[in-house]
Amino acid sequence: MNNKETINILILDDDTTIRFMLQKILDKSYNLRLCKNYNEFTNSLKNFTPHIILLDLILPDSNGVDICTELRRNSQYEEVFIFIMTSMIDTKTIIDVYDAGADDFIRKPFIPKEITSKVAIYEKIIISRNTLIEKNLKLSQLRTILKENSISYDVQSNIMTLALLHEIINFEFIDIFMYNESTQTFDSIHRKTYTDSFSPIIFTE
User: Fold this and answer.
1) How far apart are alpha carbons 66 and 55 in whole angstroms?
2) Which residues, at least 6 apart from 81, have a Cβ–Cβ distance to it below 8 Å?
3) For position 54, what pLDDT does the model report?
4) Rounded distance, CA 155 to CA 191, Å?
5) Cα separation of 21 and 23, whole Å?
6) pLDDT in tens, 92-111
7) Sequence-ordered list of residues with C-beta below 8 angstroms from that of 140, at least 6 positions apart, any chain
8) Residue 168 class from Cβ within 10 Å (0-12 exposed, 13-18 middle, 19+ buried)?
9) Are 6 and 31 in contact (CB under 8 A)?
10) Where does 59-184 show beta strands of DSSP type E?
């Protein structure tokens, strides 16, 4: 998933009215999959990759705490954000929910603004995390390039390396210079300007 992709939300609640309400609240901004029972939920996990899961606490065929506990035992879902939906806010329930590995509560009856605000907060976390992963990948690629001595007298190789570097740290322009032995000066052989960045870098060979 990249920064611009829609967040996937998987919802499990046996109440038709609540599913309808959640769909109405979230459907315009997110990619939803709604389930009315545990069997539908487990089947959905086979072909739908959620970033956020909303679980009803009390279900006819299971409960949110047990499902959350089961999900957290699977490394595939360790980075998925899980909300428990419930009208029960007593101390024991709160402790049980967090001990099961849930990230947050959604109170019943719903306050639409609370739902959209909480989901938006975790959406920002997901986007920031994905951005960091992408940056780390680019840094790893750059380390590989440097380790393989790709910065050399090959101009095209240097241009490609600096383009990758620009994606990581952003700079205003690059200048590539070659030493001219006859004039004993450094001559600029390539210059590229970037309009969406803020600091210069000069590369010399």
Assistant:
1) 10
2) 51, 52, 53, 103, 104, 122, 125, 126
3) 98
4) 12
5) 5
6) 999 999 999 999 999 999 99
7) none
8) middle
9) yes
10) 81-86, 104-107, 173-180
